[in-house]
Amino acid sequence: GMITLAFAGCGGSNTTNSNPIPLDQIPAELAKSFCAAEQACNPFFYAVAFENTDCVTQFTKQFQEASYNDIQVAVTGGTTKYDGNLARTCADAIGAGSCSVLDNNTPDSCQQALSGTVATGGDCSIDQECQGLARCDTSAGTCPGKCAPRASAGVACGNDSDCDLGLVCSPATSRCVAPAAEGAQCKGTVAGNCSAGLICVGNDDANKKPGTCMTAAETLAKHAGETCDLQNGPWCASGLSCVVQSLDAGGMLTSQCQSVASAGAQCGIGIPSDCPAGQYCPIDLPELVAKTYTANCSALPLENEACGPAIALQRCAANLVCDTTTTPAKPICVTPHELGDTCSDSSLCYSQNCVSGACAPASPCAK
C-alpha cells in the first residue's frame, strides 16, 4: 500500500538542529526516509517492488502531488506552522524506525514539525491544519472539512492517517484495525493485513480463506532445487527465484527454487522475477495453460508499447505504469500523470487519486 504523508499536527517546540529541512525539500527528504524504512523492514518486497523503479523518485513525486502543494498553502496562510529542525528529526526517526513507523506509528517529531492551529470542529482542508493528532474529516462530501479526532478500532476510515496511531485502515473492511501479529490470521478478504515486515502466507482471497502472518525468515526458507509455492509461499532464500515448472489440469502449479537467469537467457515465471533488472520473462497465461513454461529474458516494454503479460510482476520498463483501463483490450505502458492530467484510474496518477477523470491531490478539499 502507498504511504500517506507522515506529518500531522501537534504543538511545536523549537529544538535546534544543524540541518533543518527547507519546506520545499519535504517530499524528497520524506521519500528518502520512507524508502529506507521499507527496505530495512521488508527487503524481499522492496526488492520485488522496486527492481525496476527508483523508490525515492517515485515517492518524492507522489508526496509532492498528493499533499505537498496543500501543505505549502496552509503554511503560507498560517493554519499550519512549520519547523524545519523538527522535520529533520522526524525524517531521521522514520529512516531508522523501520517496521513500527510503517504501521502508522508516526514519531512525535513528525506531528510537531507541522503543527495545526485549527481546533476540533473547525474548518480545514487537510489533516496538517488540525491541532494535535486530529484529522480533517471530509467524509460528509462537502468542503471545507471539519477537524475531528482520529478514528478508533472498528470505525470507518479512508486511509491509515484517519486512524489512531498504531491502527491501520483495513483494505477489506475500510475500518480501523490493529495490523495482524506474527502467527495471526491475515487477508482472505475478512482478516486484516499483517504488521509491516511480516508476510501473509497461504491466504486464498477469492475463497475468503485467510493465511497466517509469518516472518521473512520462515517464509523465504527454500534452497536451490527445492520445491516452493509460487502462489502462497513459502518462497526461496535471497538471490533465488521461485520458478514455475509445470501446471496440472486442476490449475495447481509446481515450482522450484533456482538462480536468476542472465540477460537474454532462458527463463520461467518466477517470484522474484527470474530475469535481471530491466528484463522480464514474456510468458502469458494462455501460453502457461498450453504448457509453455520457458521463454528468453527480454527487455521490459517502453512507453507506449504493449504491457508485459498480466502474470508478470513487472509489466513495464523503469518508472512506467501499465494502463489497463483507458483501452482495456490493449494495455500500454505510460508515464504516470501529473495533477490536472486526464486519467482513467488512480493508479495512473502520481498522486494516486483520479477524480472525475483528472489527477487530483489526496484531500478532496485541496485548494
Can you tell me about this structure?
The protein is an alpha+beta fold and 367 residues long. The protein has 7 helices and 24 strands. The strands form 10 sheets. A 4-stranded antiparallel β-sheet has the order 12-15-14-17, with no helix packed on it. Helix 1 crosses helix 3 (55-77). The two termini are 25 Å apart. 44% of the residues are buried.
How is the topology of this model organized?
Elements: H1 26-41, H2 43-49, H3 55-77, E1 80-82, H4 84-102, H5 108-113, E2 114-116, E3 123-124, E4 135-137, E5 145-148, E6 168-169, E7 176-177, E8 185-186, E9 198-201, E10 211-215, H6 216-219, E11 220-222, E12 227-228, E13 235-236, E14 240-247, E15 253-259, E16 266-267, E17 270-271, E18 279-280, H7 285-289, E19 295-296, E20 298-299, E21 321-323, E22 332-334, E23 354-355, E24 358-359
Parallel strand pairs: 11-13
Antiparallel strand pairs: 1-2, 3-5, 4-5, 6-7, 8-10, 9-10, 12-15, 14-15, 14-17, 16-19, 18-20, 21-22, 23-24
Helix pairs in contact: 1-2, 1-3, 1-4
Question: Shape, please?
Answer: globular
Spatial separation of the terminal alpha carbons: 25 Å
Given helix and strand content, the structural type is alpha+beta
Question: What value does the Rg take, in angstroms?
Answer: 22 Å
Strand order of the largest sheet: 12-15-14-17
Helix content: 10-25%
Give the low-confidence spans: 1-15
Please report the number of helical segments: 7
Sheet of most strands: 4 strands, antiparallel
Strand content: 15-25%
- Whole-number mean pLDDT: 90
Strand segment count: 24
